[in-house]
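Q: Here's a chain of 228 amino acids. Please give me its 3D structure as tokens.
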Amino acid sequence: MTKSIAYLRTSSAANVGPDKDSDKRQRAAIEAFAKRAGLEITEEFYDQDVSGADPIESRPGFSALLDRIESNGVRTVVVEDASRFARQLIVQEAGIIALIERGVRVLTSSGDDLTETNDPFKIAMRQIAGVFAQLEKARLVGKLKAARDRKRATGVKVEGRKSYREIDDEKHGGEMITMAKRLRRKTPKGGRRSLRAIADELARAGYKSESGKPYAATAIGRMLGEIQ
């Protein structure tokens, strides 16, 4: 059976509690579909009292889901329907892009694959969302640089946060990221190591974070340019 993860969301505190049925309905629909489709739900992530219009990146349950995906290699997420994932299309597509980038499929309990579409509007929406994500990143980088420049102009010494590339060049001669990229390549069987597995391999080779612990999966993703 294909290992999968369930994602649930309720939009208000009024729908949360032992006497409410929103999460029970979602869970039952997901489990029934998983049984029909030959999927094994190994874990559940639940955003309680989270609006369908809230940005994906601000949802604790969804963030935990991404961390889990990066650590255990599960590549299928099941939701009751598209509205449970997000009600606003732009928010829904932003979240789907985040999962597509990690090689994940998002299935609904009715069997729809939200990550695969021939709808030209949705395809365009994903392209637009990707463009705006890059634009926002560039805007933030420029804003931080301008703030540092203003401080320097007053004579204040400013040290920006070093990138993983800078840390690697200074401490390891560029070998850490090279090793991470090699580990991320597909194996002869066609699979790829998870970000967590790469972090463990780097730690065994002596490449650890400043705290002396293995890097987090998200840190490995940033090293490889897979997470912004």
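Q: Can you summarize the key feature?
A: The chain has three domains: 2-116, 118-159, 161-228.
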